[in-house]
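Let's practice the habit of predicting before peeking. Look at the sequence and jot down your guess about where helices and strands might fall. Then scroll down.
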Amino acid sequence: MELKEIRSGLIDKYIKLFPAEVAVTFNSFTAGEIVEFIENQPVDVAEEILTNLSPDVVATVIERMDEPIYLSIFEAIDPYTAAKLLSRTKKSLLDRALKLLSERKSNSIREMLSYPPEAAGYLMDTRITTFNAQNTVDQVLNKLRSIGDKKMVNLYVTDSKGRLLGKVFIQTIAISTPETTLAELVIPCESISVMSPAEEAVKLFEEGRFINLPVVDMDHHILGIIRNSALVAATQKDASEDVLAMFGAGREERALSTPLFAVKKRLPWLQINLATAFLAASIVGAFEETIAQVTVLAVFLPVVAGQSGNTGSQALAVTMRGLALREIQTSQWWKVARKEVAVGFINGVAVALTTAIIAYFWASSFGIALVIGTSMVLSMVIAGFSGAVVPIVLKAFGQDPAQSSSIVLTTVTDIMGFLSFLGLATLLGSALGIF
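Done guessing? Here is the structure:
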């Protein structure tokens, strides 16, 4: 066997055994050279090399791939890896790349790429340049000159597997010797999981003194960064839109929108709310005779409705957050509802005792105290159940869980609160004559 063949065989063996180390070397190659190399490699080796390339290099390599090479690799690898690689590319290229794949693979990747608005991943910028810990200062400076990013204030350093090790300040690079490696300069840095709540990112920005926040996956691979300006703008926008949606105004409406546009967005929900209000009023009307006999019952109606409404709102907020962050699925509705029912019962008993004592001294009636205490427990249990189920039902029917959930919930809690209170009062008053 000739020396050339032996050398070629050893190189192939090394690539198959240590593709991550090979990828570190390839970071200094041109995209064309990398594409030319991986097109002759098995899919598993090509995947390993791509996943360990610097994010900015990966984007360029994918752009340079011919369609047959691209399909052979991305149809074979798992959706998570494919999503992580394609997330580095421009949106226009991403759309074209997904259309080339099979519908099933494309849909899976899109699902991976669609982070919920309340998650840190929704706010991150995947266009990030990382450096390997073994890169020297001289290599880093050469790459920085080619990038030409004048806004870069620190470098993010990864190991051979793409896991975040820490950061190095540009000033540190400037005063270090050319042969110094980043492994000698790197310092730990804050990071956030891609599915963590955006509120956690806000808290980290408030507590720390940094401009950008790295976003990592479960294996601590860096996926992108959250920039301070993007975080502020996005959180303000999302918060305002959710408030609008929950109270029946359109997400698209702005303070200076035309009156006609505002009416178009709000009026349908106001009409629905009016209908539900009359429905709640009809429940009270059905017990007109009971209220006429015991007029003090009218005084306590807002108390029952208010407490059940607050209980439902708490359950609604927690459930909506769980759906937004994908902590729960619609199939887990009973588990969530059962938990909120338990919480509603325990809180209901505690609140009912206080309410019953106040009602007893207010109305000088044991019957009133018994009725309002019992109805408080019932209405808070029902409210907790409703607060959990309403957003899940909307989600199951393909609707936005935030869209007017509070209007639906308020209707349910008012009706059930009035029904339990006045129904018990009628039942106990007529059957036991305790009033």
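How did you do? The beta strands are 130-132, 154-158, 164-169, 192-193, 212-216, 222-227.
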